[in-house]
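If you are new to this repository, start here. Below is one unmodified record pulled from the training split, so you can see the exact layout before writing a loader.
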Amino acid sequence: ICNTFNSDTGIALLGGFAIYEVLGYMQKKCEKLSPTGVCAENYYKQASMGLAFIAYPSGLATLEAPQFWGIIFFGCLIMLGIDSAFSLAECFVTFAKDCWIGLRLRPKTWMVVLPTCIVGWLAGLLYCYDSGTVYLDIIDNYLNNWGMVLIGTLECFAVGWVYKIEDQYKQVGKLSVMVYNLGFVFFLLIGTIVALAIPGKKPTEGTEAVLDALLASYGKDQGGAVNLFLVNFIEQFE
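And here is the target side for that same chain:
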């Protein structure tokens, strides 16, 4: 488990350096070419499809032999997609075979894998239409973001209150559990400090108007003041 954790962490760090050095290069290049010195496109905010199909390929096009690097990059994306399909299917198949219905019926593996893959294939056809990018953007922004928060909360509850730490010690050993827990807490603390230390963007005229309205409403209509505060808070992340 320690080797897997270290490999996963190392690959994530390497991927972060590989991505942001390209985005930084493209941002500086765009600023130099702009007459005003301000790039019309913020490469640092590219994510999802914009990062994979616009920003990063544009950076690769500036390298020597861009066709070679393009094949390597998009081949990597295909492999990642196949790997994600494996993990998604395996998760459901394992759950279906280990739940009480699966233990009672004891179906063969292919009898669970085949329907799972067929349903996943039919759901994937939705993204092949002209409106597929719209559906992908909706799912990527709403289902993944909020769904991941919910799943993470449920996993914390399962590990902390259902699958107790004594059971974890028996399965993988005390050292592995302690290394993972201490590493997680350490990097969470470092990430929180770095996130709070980064200065936020300056308030715009619209934001100042919202804050003024918030101060004016406080004490008179506390419900309205809370709504204004939430609106202003959400706008900071848009």
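Two things worth knowing about this chain: The two ends are 37 Å apart (CA to CA). The chain has a mean pLDDT of 76.
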